[in-house]
TrEMBL record:
This is Spore maturation protein. The keyword Ribosomal protein does not apply. The chain crosses the membrane at residues 6-25, 37-58, 88-112, 133-153, 165-187. InterPro entries: Gate_dom. Residues 42-154 form the Nucleoside transporter/FeoB GTPase Gate domain. The lineage of its organism: Bacteria, Bacillati, Bacillota, Clostridia, Eubacteriales.
Length: 191
């Protein structure tokens, strides 16, 4: 669906620029922005490789496992059915921990596994359980301890202090996660 929306926006933009006589200005803008775009992407790839390496070291050193042990008691309180099943809770913990550390690629298989395990526990097949919905909320509003993507983008854009975003990111993602959990718990009573 999003592809159709983007196509329509681009097509309408081109159409309007041609009919208003700004077709040449649009072409010149596109051509002039290509150089800066390629430079930005190349610098971003290098920074993303660096942060992925840092996160991999955190994973291999056991930092993510220690974080998972700290989170497990909290998640047992939040999740009702999944807390009773060690496999489901383990996959949830590993997914959220990997997301917190900025290991998006490592988090995806754990997220899929967590949903499979919660679906196994689900009594109403074909409909998401409350734990599944809550997991999606936590996955979407996950607390970011190291927002490596934003740091990389800021550094590639020439920021003098790209890491200044860490504290605001921790604060805003924590607030988002708490509000998401509260809303999910309130809605569970009605649906």
């Amino acid at each position: 669906m999003i592809n159709y929306i983007w196509f329509i926006m681009i097509f309408l933009g081109i159409l309007v620029s041609v009919f208003t006589g700004n077709g040449e200005a649009m072409s010149n803008t596109i051509i002039s922005s290509i150089d800066s775009t390629v430079t930005f992407i190349i610098s971003l790839v290098g920074l993303m490789c660096f942060w992925c390496g840092v996160m991999r070291v955190a994973e291999k050193s056991g930092l993510t496992e220690k974080l998972a042990k700290l989170m497990k008691p909290v998640l047992k309180v939040i999740f009702k059915e999944a807390a009773k099943d060690e496999k489901a809770l383990g996959a949830i913990v590993m997914n959220i921990t990997a997301n917190m550390m900025g290991l998006g690629n490592a988090a995806t298989p754990f997220g899929i596994k967590a949903m499979e395990e919660m679906d196994r526990l689900n009594r109403d097949k074909g409909r998401a359980s409350n734990d599944m919905a809550l997991f999606l909320v936590l996955n979407a509003a996950c607390v970011q301890l190291v927002p490596s993507t934003v740091i990389s983008i800021r550094a590639a854009a020439g920021s003098t202090n790209p890491g200044v975003i860490i504290l605001p990111a921790i604060l805003s993602t924590t607030i988002a996660a708490v509000v998401g959990v509260i809303c999910a718990k309130i809605l569970q009573r009605y649906f």
